[in-house]
Amino acid sequence: MSIRITTMSENTASRMGLLGEWGLSILIETSGQRILFDTGRSFSAAYNAIEMGIDLTQISKIVFSHGHLDHTGGLLPILKLIRKPIEVVAHPDIWQSKYSTLSGRLRRYCGVPFSREIAEGLGASFKLTGAPLWLSKNVVTSGEIPMTTKYEEIDSGLYVKEKDKFKLDPLRDDQALFIRSEKGLIIILGCAHRGAINTIRHAQELTGVEDVYAIIGGTHLMAASPLRMDFTIAELQRLNIQRLGVSHCTGMAASALLAQTFGERFFFNNAGTCSNF
User: pTM for this structure?
Assistant: First the structure.
């Protein structure tokens, strides 16, 4: 089974001609399927697809990792290029009114930046579920990810607004994509708000596969404490991860530490990066 993973949009670009934009979008091609995992923040994923010669009309499904604008905001430009009805798989909570704070500043809206009706008018058909969903024999969405480690916590600056009141967002909609390969699990992360290690453990339990070959995407370690970094790295080493491609919310300091630790097994997974398994 051949697996090809292409990053369509990320904070940085791998070569001239591509756009970098805060957010993430990853194309997974396997078993005759083309699954787009997230759509970036605005038009960068669509622009980069054209620049890279990728035919978006061949996408069979779109999956949202969670309902933040930097992972969903590029849907409308993508739909305009797809030009056909397409299913979008997501957790029901993506439509919550989500807000964030940055360095203690006033809360600002960070949820999906368009209405469901507008997206449906362009061909999107939303399949909303909190349960894992098998997209093929070897590809499954995580569904809701249990919080099992003691050192991974959800950001305290993320909120949901309900009837003019703000409450902490548990990010139940945070999910990942798991691929069973001949080499072991390949785990595609959006932001890993509920913890990269929590996500890996859930992948192992859900798929019945213990070996984890590759982790690709956002690990949300940009504000991780030294203790959390130590525990995370120790667990990744114990799992003997062979390919670690970090993106987006990992942060430069955490990325540098991971690069130093994992050497040739590490790579920056930025816009234009293509991995074959």
Answer: 0.96
